[in-house]
Structures are given as C-alpha cells and as structure tokens.
Amino acid sequence: MSLTTRAAIARRPHTGWELAELRLDPPKAHEVRVKFHASGLCHSDDHITKGDAGVRFPVVGGHEGAGVVESVGPDVRRVKPGDRIICSYIPACGACRPCSTGHQNMCVKGLNAGTGMFLDGTFRFHLGEEDLGGFCTLGTFSEYAVVSEYACLPLADDIPFEIGALVGCGVPTGWGSAVYAAGVRAGETVVIFGAGGVGSNAVQGARYAGAKNVVVVDPVEFKRDMAKTFGATHTFATAAEAREFVVGTTWGQLADHAILTPGVLTQEIVQAATEMVGKGGKVTVTAVGKKDEQAVRFRAGLLIGYQRQIRGALFGDCNPLYDVPRLLGLYRAGDLKLDELITQRYRLDQVNDAYQDLADGKNIRGVIVHED
C-alpha cells in the first residue's frame, strides 16, 4: 500500500529546496521500497537548483543514500526486507551490453536519471495529482523511496549508514577518476583541480596508485588543508602557482595527469589543466559545468603537438557491484579515509543551509541524517 513520506523537492530552478509531504506508491516488479537513514549532499544536486542539470521538475533531490529495505515488489532477487543497503546512483543490472562488457557505470537501466521515471513509464512519488521523479531514480532526500533492485548494494552491519551513503557516488567517482579513468601509475605527477567530496577521493586514489606528486589546486584554504589529510603532497590556491611547481619538480616535462573535480567546471579550468600536462598527458573530466557554457574549447594543436588526451569519466569508470565492496574493504583496513570526509551532519529541514555551507567552502561533504 501507499505511504506518506517527507522529502526535499525542487519545483523549478533558482528556488532552492522545499519540504513536502509526498505519497509514495508501493514497489512494482524488480523494485524495492527503502527507508533511508543517511543521504550525502553532493554538488550534483546543487546543479539542479542552480538550473545547470537537465532534470524534469518538480524533482525529489538526493542520489547518495543508504538505509534499510522496507518492502519488495515481485521478482526481486537481489535484496529482501530488512537488508541494509547502499543505493548506487547508477544501477547495475549485470546483463545489458555495458554491464556484460565490464562497464556497469553505463548500465542501460540508468537511462532515466534526469526524469526519475521508472522503466514502465510511471512514477512512484506524487504530490496531489502531480507526479515527481527522484533524481537518478532515487530521491534520497526523502525519508522513503522506491528504487530499482539493480541500484541496491549490500551494506555490512559494521559500516555506518553515513559512510555507506557516500560510497554510492562521491567516493567511487573520485577514486575511480584517478585509478581507472586516468590510470595513474607509480611515480607519476597528478594535478587535481578541486578538493571537495569527489576531489578528495581522487587524491586518495592517486596516492594509493603510487603517484609521486599529488598536487591539488583549490582556492579554499580549508579544502587545501584537508587535501593533505587525504594524501596530497602539495597544494596551491591557483593554477598558475601549481604550474610553476610542476614545471620545476618535473624539470619541464609537466604533469602526467590532470583530474578535474571542481564544484563547477569552466573553460578556464580545462585550459589550465590541458596546459599543465606534458607529452602523452591525460586530462580527465569528472565535474560538470554550467548548462550553457562550452567548457572544452581550444585549438586542436594544443592536443596534437604533445599528443595530449581529454576524456570524460562517469562514476570514475567504477563497476558498482565490484568496486563498492572493494572500497569498503580498503576503508576497513584503514587504507581509505571516509570518516574524515564528513564535515557536518544536517537534518532534512536544513538542506538549504547545508548547500549554502557547501557554496561557502565550509564542507568537504555534508550528510543528511534522516530522523527515525
């Protein structure tokens, strides 16, 4: 049967988040209803309220979440009621062409991320007669949500819900951007632009992969200081300062990699990063920018002369079914710092304050803790 859930929704761009009581339908085939305990406050949700994300309004926010399975629909095999789970913001069915070729981060069942519509063409959230989708077909800014069973990953009893929520998006996106998408190797020099929730994990990934120099560029002093906790060897407020260091430490050969994880990607950042990598260097683009800005725009010769590469990274090229448990194993072993990512915890009704703190550079990652 349907139930009522409290959620933070965005009705349109530039109006922030508002709390609403929604009706939530029961799960259908291959769907589960989840009671969320924690939700990460990722910058991607901020792009919704800023008008830079191509979503269907109104929308229930949140795509980093962990909680407990409350009920299941027909034909569900992956989880059962009572299971503790992480929600992967990209589902992994395991059977489609991308999944079966090792690219679960591009599973075809994630095609409705911007609308929140289920594959049968219907919605589970309702406000009066109006249908709402959850961002990435999740909506973790709601106390309860119906999600695909293919978005559910197991969360062991010894892992806090708050940590589990972050491993549904920000942690593998950052880590994988360094380890998989960029392919950082031992002894290399890596420059990471932006040291927030995703960039901090790119730092950890680069360091764990054996990079000699892990250089962070971020204008916020607090984030630069925290980057050292996660493994940065050098930090700078501007790209010009970082480039001067990179030129000196590499004897003019420049960096092997630049990984772009700022809150908002700009043409200036892409240009600086491309000029920061040397022959055969790679620029990995993980962050998104403003909807109407062409951030990747420069002379072809800038790539050709040094045979540079620029590529995008979705979910850090991670495979959720394999990499999320792997990352939690590293966390257990003390090789991956996740507790340190959480700067502050918020109630659901503080969601706008939380995003203001993010804009003010006060948080690495904020987390909403849903009330019982």
What does this structure look like?
- The chain has 372 residues and is α/β, with parallel strands linked by helices.
- It contains eleven helices and 18 strands.
- It has helices at residues 43-49, 97-100, 161-166, 170-182, 199-208, 221-229, 239-249, 267-276, 301-304, 320-332, 351-359, and strands spanning 3-10, 18-24, 31-40, 59-60, 65-72, 84-87, 125-127, 130-134, 144-148, 152-154, 189-193, 213-217, 234-236, 255-260, 277-285, 309-312, 342-346, 365-369.
- The strands form three sheets. Strands 3, 5, 6, 9, 10, 17 and 18 form a seven-stranded mixed β-sheet that branches. It has a six-stranded parallel β-sheet with strand order 13-12-11-14-15-16, with helices on both faces. A five-stranded mixed β-barrel has the order 1-2-7-8-4.
- A hairpin with a 2-residue loop joins strand 7 (125-127) and strand 8 (130-134).
- Helix 4 crosses helix 5 (199-208) and helix 7 runs parallel beside helix 8.
- It is globular.
- The model has no long low-confidence stretch (mean pLDDT 97).
Keywords:
18 strands, 26% helix, alpha/beta, 6-stranded parallel β-sheet, 26% strand, 7-stranded mixed β-sheet, 372 residues, globular
